[in-house]
Design goal:
single chain; 3 domains; elongated; alpha/beta; D-Maltodextrin-Binding Protein, domain 2; 472 residues; ten-stranded mixed β-sheet
């Protein structure tokens, strides 16, 4: 073989070797010595193959090296395969010449990342574990406020160290098995996120498939339903827990009967004596205080019988009977009806059968409309009354309020799976924990403030009271 052909052959072999070497690098991944015995080896190799991360020029990956905010933004964008965006970064410490500008720009445009109050992004500062959790939930567009955080945090010893702004996000990611705590039952929220941890989190996000929603039944009172509160908080709970909630709106008596028959998974009612009996008979797994408001006596603005001149609810009821003023009763064995009957009993009056006493056998909304039409008096919870006033459905006014006897507490109970194995206890339990947990209690306390200047219900759970006490 002459020298010319020998030289050609050498070039061919060299090129072939380089091609095969490149092929091996691209699809098999580099053989980084510092990941071979690392717990995240499999995830890291996959992330390299998918072009999400790379190693360093010295042939290492450095899996336990802290990740900067700019680096986390970079791998987040690469993993998401985001196209170019035209967004102006407001961060004074991220000039266009900065190496990660394009990636930070894309992540910012999607709303995944934010800066600090001083107008900086601090791109070279390590991103910590709770910051990463919040960023990931933003990327996933996850609703986390409805999570029953008590469950994923049950064995997390340092849960109280998790910042309030990241509390439900971390809990939700744990619930969905996207992130985990450490082997010593901690989460270490302020610990800088390592490259290996970031890779695992991101791949779990990419692989995540939300489960199909299941169904559960909440049996509750018409007064709760008519107030509009459930229209605000139930969708948040549903979105966080992959469940659809069917709300049965009836009087408290019927709501409890429905649960006693095994036709509801959870009840939210306001008749403590009936609730205690429900628990005593073994139909509820547990009972939690959730909220309260109060009852009020309302009637026509003209107040033809001068009931407003009385100083207490007992005096008001006595004068209604004495003057035979038309009174509309729920008459449906609801919590409101039970409260009304208790007041009549305390006043020493039996109104049943009297010409001025009308038993409607209807829910709170229907009774308000009836009382408005007849310009009569009735007992109602404040929340439903204010909602109907706001919606201009009635023009009745408050005649009597403020007596201790008019307090209206609500309790929530999951139906016992020991009594009815078919009930959706897991979802009922989560609903109870959400409504009595901090985010749920805050939502209850905020509902109505914008429209009425004060809440329609006041949060009343033991957990929320302890939270307020610790805040002082």
């Amino acid at each position: 073989m002459n020298k010319k052909w020998f030289a050609v052959l050498r070039v061919f072999v060299l090129v072939s070797t380089l091609v095969l070497s490149t092929f091996s690098y691209t699809f098999a991944g580099p053989n980084f010595p510092d990941i071979q015995k690392h717990w995240a080896k499999t995830w890291i190799e996959r992330a390299i193959k998918e072009g999400i991360v790379t190693g360093y020029p010295n042939g290492t990956f450095q899996p336990d090296r802290p990740l900067s905010r700019a680096e986390f933004s970079t791998i987040l964008v690469k993993a998401s395969k985001l196209a170019g965006v035209d967004a102006v970064l407001p961060f004074k410490d991220v000039p266009k010449a900065y190496w990660g500008y394009e990636f930070i720009q894309k992540a910012y445009a999607k709303g995944w990342i934010a800066g600090f109050p001083d107008g900086t992004f601090q791109p070279d500062k390590p991103v910590n574990r709770e910051q990463a959790a919040v960023i990931l939930t933003k990327k996933m567009e996850a609703e986390t406020r409805g999570v029953a955080y008590q469950i994923p945090y049950a064995n997390v010893l340092d849960k109280n160290n998790i910042s309030e702004w990241a509390f439900t996000q971390v809990a939700w990611l744990m619930q969905e098995s996207i992130i985990k705590g450490t082997t010593n039952k901690t989460f270490l929220p302020q610990k800088p996120l390592t490259r290996a941890e970031a890779v695992v989190m991101l791949l779990n996000v990419l692989d995540y498939k939300a489960p199909q929603p299941k169904n559960m039944v909440l049996s509750t009172t018409t007064s709760t339903y008519d107030s509009g509160l459930l229209d605000v908080i139930i969708p948040i709970y549903e979105a966080s827990n992959h469940v659809r909630v069917k709300v049965i709106s009836v009087g408290t008596g019927q709501a409890i009967t429905t649960a006693r028959s095994g036709d509801a998974d959870c009840i939210l009612v306001h008749d403590r004596a009936a609730e205690d009996l429900f628990m005593k008979d073994g139909f509820g797994s547990y009972r939690l205080d959730v909220m309260y408001n109060d009852f009020i006596l309302i009637g026509p603005a003209s107040d033809p019988k001068d009931i407003k001149e009385t100083n207490s609810i007992l005096e008001a009821f006595k004068k209604i009977a004495q003057t035979e003023a038309t009174f509309i009763s729920r008459g449906d064995k609801s919590g409101t009806h039970s409260k009304e009957l208790g007041i009549w009993k305390s006043a020493g009056i039996e109104p049943t059968g009297k010409s001025w006493y009308v038993s409607a056998g209807q829910g709170m909304g229907a009774v308000l409309l009836m009382a408005n039409e007849k310009q009569a008096y009735t007992l109602t919870d404040r929340a439903t009354y204010l909602k109907y006033i706001k919606d201009k459905k009635i023009n009745l006014v408050i005649i009597n309020e403020g007596s201790a006897q008019l307090l209206n507490p609500y309790g929530i109970m999951p139906v016992s799976p020991q009594k009815y194995p078919h009930v959706q206890y897991d979802f009922a339990n989560k609903l109870c924990l959400f409504m009595t947990g901090i985010p749920g209690q805050k939502m209850i306390g905020e509902y109505g403030v914008k429209d009425f200047g004060s809440p329609l219900f006041f949060p009343d759970s033991l957990e929320y009271k302890a939270y307020l006490k610790n805040k002082k």
